[in-house]
Amino acid sequence: MVLSCPFVKSDADGNGYLQKIDQSENIALAGVEDTDIQGLSTAISDTEPRYSFFRYTHEVDGQTTNSIIFIYTCPSGSKVKERMIYASFKKVVMETASAEAGFEIAKKLEASSPAEITPKMIEEEFQPRQEQKQGFARPKRPGKR
Question: What are phi and psi of 94, to 5 degrees?
Fold first, then answer.
């Protein structure tokens, strides 16, 4: 496997960058998509594993922000060899994307099917999590009915 891979610089057209591993086990650019959050799942292959980078535009404290999301999809119908290769080089691809293209990955998502990547799922990832505090519930005394 070759560690250098062709990444599109973050100022290029399109907000979805799809990476694949070709027959000679090199990382190759599978495509650049100009898609929105609703069309993201259809832009990713549902028959082969993929590494995808999506530029998600959202608001944080009233300011528009662009965040890079790394999405690793591995359909259950893909070949075992492909699944093993993609799973073992996921971290290398993320590190290379940071080094070569300057991608600052804000979130990492994994799915077995692109259909699992929904707009609601992505929006929830960027919402602040609210903790629900629950008081101590004293256990009931044993033996009493």
Answer: -65, -45
Mean pLDDT over residues 71-79, rounded? 90
**What's the CA gap between 23 and 133, in Å, rounded?**
52
Gyration radius of the chain over CA positions = 20
Q: Phi/psi class of residue 138: alpha, beta or left (left: φ > 0; alpha: ψ in -120 to 50)? A: beta
Helix (H) / strand (E) containing 86: helix 80-88
Nearest Cα to 2, choosing from 93, 115, 69?
93
Q: How far apart are CA 137 and CA 130, in angstroms?
A: 21
Assign 30 to helix, strand or coil.
Answer: strand
Residue with tokens 């944080």: 60
Gap between the Cα atoms of 86 and 141, Å rounded: 53
**Residue pLDDT, tens place only, 94-130:** 888 888 888 899 999 999 999 998 999 888 888 777 7
Structure tokens at 132: 């629900």
| Residue whose entry in the numeric block shows the structure tokens 């998502």 | 109
The position carrying tokens 């609703």 is 38
Under 8 Å CB-to-CB from 101, ≥6 apart: which residues? 7, 8, 9, 10
